[in-house]
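To fix ideas at the outset, we first show an illustrative case, written as a sequence plus integers encoding its fold:
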Amino acid sequence: MKKLSIIKFLFFLALSPTTFLYAQSHKEKIIQKKRELRLAEKTYKDAEKKFNSLRDELYQLRLKNGYWTRQGFLGINFSRAEFNNWAAGGANSYAVNSTLTCKADYKKNKFTWENFVDLSIGFTKNADENSKKSEDKIDILSKFSFETKKRAKFRFAALLNFKSQFAQGFDFSNEEKPILNSRFFAPAYILSSLGFEYKPTQPLSLLFSPASGKFTIVQNKALAEKHFFIPSSAANPNFRSELGASLNVLIQKRIRKSINLRSRLELFNNYLDPNRANRKNIDISWETSLNFKISKYIGVSFLTYLLYDDDINITFKVNEQGVEIEKLGPKIQFKDVLGIGFSYQF
């Protein structure tokens, strides 16, 4: 037994250096791979940075030669759900939503002309109900800017923006008697601004205008009489003009080759409002869109839209002393739209 124990001891004694050397070698391999991974990560980031830099340089070279730069996005999303003898229950539904955005810029010398068109329309239909509008937008923007000197961050700028919708919109709180609350050119908004643009980087621009005109049009007698978009104190229920200051903040960035971000914040203050109490109110419009490219023709789009205008009245219900009553007044409006389907960038 003693001889056997001595043999085991000598065996483990002989094996331990080998085990130690193997463990040491394995540890060094892990350390080496970590170093290689960090180096590869740095190389990847440098390559991505170089790619973005070259793309921006190419964009600037085209602009210097007076080229138009154009890009666009088309998305069509469709969903369907149908149930037949389904124990858990459910309602048949169909939905379709389409979006078209186009951008065209022109630059020659110190003059820049930027144009953007954003159009979308969508409908949903559940079981035996009538189809309902889920998305509807017309947004056309044109901006002129002039550099005081070459590559100046501050520029003189003028902006013209038109917003409306294509189809009729209804309030379906009462399914039997839906209430019409919008249609083409009812309302429509036109914003014209003259001021200064600050563009510290390519993706970001801020346009401040001390002299902006905002025009609201309601080309429908029934909607005009409800004063949803133009207050009853206005002289003309179909048209209203406002003069004030505005700030337009725009961020456009290609985060990755397959991810595009666009976010626009618009602030407007009517400092000549006949109702002095309203002069402290600021109209807010903030829209953000993200487009993800999954494959050549498949993509995901996500849109959020926050809106507040003290002159837009919305019907809402409140509970006062246990009694639910209906009121009309301004409210923060918010919507988000998520779509997955056909997409094409051009």
Q: What stands out?
A: Residues 2-64 form the longest helix (63 residues). The CA atoms of residues 186 and 218 lie 4 Å apart.
